[in-house]
Amino acid sequence: MKSNNKYLYLYLGISFAVCWGIAISFILFEDFLVPLTGELTLMHPLAIIALYSPSIAGIITYYVMGGTEALKGLFSKLIPRKQDLVWFPIILGIFILFGLTMHFGSLLFGLPVPDITFTVPEMFIAALVNFIKETGLIGGVFGWIGFLLPFLQGKFKNNITSALLTGFLFGLWVLPGYIISSFGTSTSYLFYVAQLMVFVVFQSYIFNATKGNLLFYLFAFWLAATGSQIQLYFFNPDVQKLQISYFIIAAVVIHFVFKKKNIAQPLQVFPDFIKA
Fold first, then answer.
1. CA 20 to CA 14: how far, in whole Å?
2. What is the model's pLDDT at position 181?
3. Which of 114, 218, 245, 273 shows the greatest Cβ crowding within 10 Å of its Cβ?
4. pLDDT tens digits along 159-172
5. Using CA atoms, how far apart are residues 67 and 214, in angstroms rounded to an integer?
6. What is the DSSP string of 207-255?
7. Residues whose CB is less than 8 angstroms from the CB of residue 170 and which lie 6 or more positions away in sequence, other chains included
8. Helices (H), strands (E): how many in the chain?
9. How far is it, in rounded angstroms, from Cα 218 to Cα 88?
10. What is the 3-state secondary structure (H, E, C) of 97-159?
11. What's the pLDDT tens digit per position in 172-207?
């Protein structure tokens, strides 16, 4: 693993240098850059590059490690095995319960909820649009989950420690987005980091049980990010607390279910998992 550390440094170096470099440049030199490039909104080309930098870094790292064969192995992890297809309805059920818990939990604790004006077809369309808008999906799938999680699992020999650290670094990388005012958000940054950490712990069990398949991460992240977009709840600090609690419970439940049912979940480690 020591000889592989160069890939970790390469990955983190590209991810943070690109994202933080663009963000800090606009923070320090806004008066000079904005007239040249325009405001740094989420759809700005430079913002898109910054937000996709983890996956860009992951792809570059795999190419440096093993060329086109490594990339083929990485992209093959978007294709689930036949025996893993059962995870789609399981994940869907978990996140339907998630959305309902956030909605009715908000009502239970006296938190405001949106007026649901969407019809069911409109909710479906909004959910599909959110798959494109949610840059955390493609932006991180080949990096945080496709590279960093299996790398750390190989280093620590433990999915929980590895997932917590993956989520923490993911959250640290996100920090500039909370600094730049044009990315305005009503959420708490510290809660968001905690959300990422517990979500990746939950997701790591599925990742290992499916031989490192990445499509299930995309599916789960998309569903987790969609509830507020289809008017089930507001995404604010109070709801973030509910979400953190939900994923802590979900991670504990899935841990003990796997243990009781003896479900195989061998740790998927870099770079071996892309060969399986």
1. 10
2. 46
3. 273
4. 999 999 999 999 99
5. 20
6. HHHTTS-SHHHHHHHHHHHHGGGGTS---SHHHHHHHHHHHHHHHHHHH
7. 54, 140, 144, 196, 200
8. 12, 0
9. 11
10. HHHHHHHHHHHHCCCCCCCCCCCHHHHHHHHHHHHHHCCHHHHHHHHHHHHHHHHHHHHHCCH
11. 998 887 766 444 457 788 999 999 999 999 999 999
Average pLDDT over all residues of the chain? 90
Q: Which residues contact 36 (CB under 8 A, 6 or more apart)?
A: none
Virtual torsion, Cα 3, 5, 2, 144, nearest 10 deg: -120
Residues 6+ apart with CB under 8 A from 89: none
pLDDT tens for 242-268 read 999 999 999 999 999 988 878 778 999
Please state, as a whole number, how many other Cβ atoms lie within 10 Å of the Cβ of residue 202.
Answer: 23
Match 């095995």 to its residue by tokens: 81
* CB crowding 238-249: b at 16 or more within 10 Å, else e: bbbbbbbebbee
Burial of residue 175, with CB atoms counted within 10 A of its CB: 0-12 exposed, 13-18 middle, 19 or more buried: middle
pLDDT 10s digits, 129-141: 877 766 556 778 9
Smallest CA-to-CA distance from 212 within 154, 155, 253, 170 is with 154
Q: Are 102 and 234 in contact (CB under 8 A)?
A: no
What value does the CA radius of gyration of the chain take, rounded to a whole number of Å? 19
**What is the structure's pLDDT at 137?**
64
Classify residue 187 by its DSSP letter.
Answer: S
